[in-house]
Amino acid sequence: MLDDLDRRILRHWQADASLSPAELAERCAVAPGKVARRIARMQENGVIKGVAAVVDWAALGYAVEVALRVTLDKTVSRAFDDFIEAAREVPEVIEIQTFLGRVDVRLNIIARDMPHYQDIYRDRILTLPHIADIEALMQIARIKADEALPL
């Protein structure tokens, strides 16, 4: 399990993933070698899955985000697998989530504008296999999008 030092390292690294082990060590008041070993151990144990650049897709001209709630035809045995495999191939699908209940899958889609979204919806989404029902939720504002854990 994680101890206090591990949590301090993760807290600082979540806040700024560009920090080097030496900078993390300074903020945690320990030796850089100790931080490097802790990071390596947490990576080996799967606590740290990777470090990634967070790109603001809106800054790249994508102004529309839509969440689609999809219900699949459950009479088809491979409906989930076929649908998810095909949805992964749509570049504008930035997130796929599965659920238990009436809604089976949620897709988050980004588009440059509404005409672009309409093209994606007609040409790429409606052609996905085994859709029984689909509902679109247009995002108005993102109030909170924090993936950092409260450590």
Fold and architecture overview:
With 151 residues, the protein is an alpha+beta fold. It has two domains: 4-44, Arc Repressor Mutant, subunit A; 57-138, 2-Layer Sandwich (Alpha-Beta Plaits). Helix content is 36%, strand content 20%. The chain has helices spanning 4-15, 21-28, 32-44, 79-87, 114-125, and strands at 64-72, 93-98, 105-111, 131-138. Strands 2-3-1-4 form a four-stranded antiparallel sheet. A hairpin with a 6-residue loop joins β2 (93-98) and β3. α1 packs across α2 (21-28). The mean pLDDT is 94.
Brief sketch in words of this structure:
The chain has 151 residues and is α+β, with helices and mostly antiparallel strands. It has five helices and four strands; from the N terminus they run H-H-H-E-H-E-E-H-E.
How would the blueprint of this fold be written?
Blueprint: H1 4-15, H2 21-28, H3 32-44, E1 64-72, H4 79-87, E2 93-98, E3 105-111, H5 114-125, E4 131-138
Helix pairs in contact: 1-2, 2-3
Strand order across the biggest sheet? 2-3-1-4
CATH class of the largest domain: Alpha Beta
Can you summarize the main beta sheet? 4 strands, antiparallel
Q: What does the radius of gyration come to?
A: 20 Å
* CATH topology-level fold name of the largest domain: Alpha-Beta Plaits
> Which structural class do the helices and strands define?
alpha+beta
For the record, the count of structural domains works out to: 2
**CATH superfamily membership of the largest domain, which one?**
Lrp/AsnC effector binding domain/regulation of amino acid metabolism (RAM) domain
Would you list the SSEs in sequence order as H and E? HHHEHEEHE
Termini separation (Å)?
13 Å
**Extended strand count:** 4
* CATH-defined architecture of the largest domain: 2-Layer Sandwich
DSSP helix fraction = 25-40%
Compute the number of helices. Answer: 5
Low-pLDDT stretches? none
The 3D shape can be described as elongated
Overall mean confidence score, pLDDT: 94
Beta percentage is 15-25%
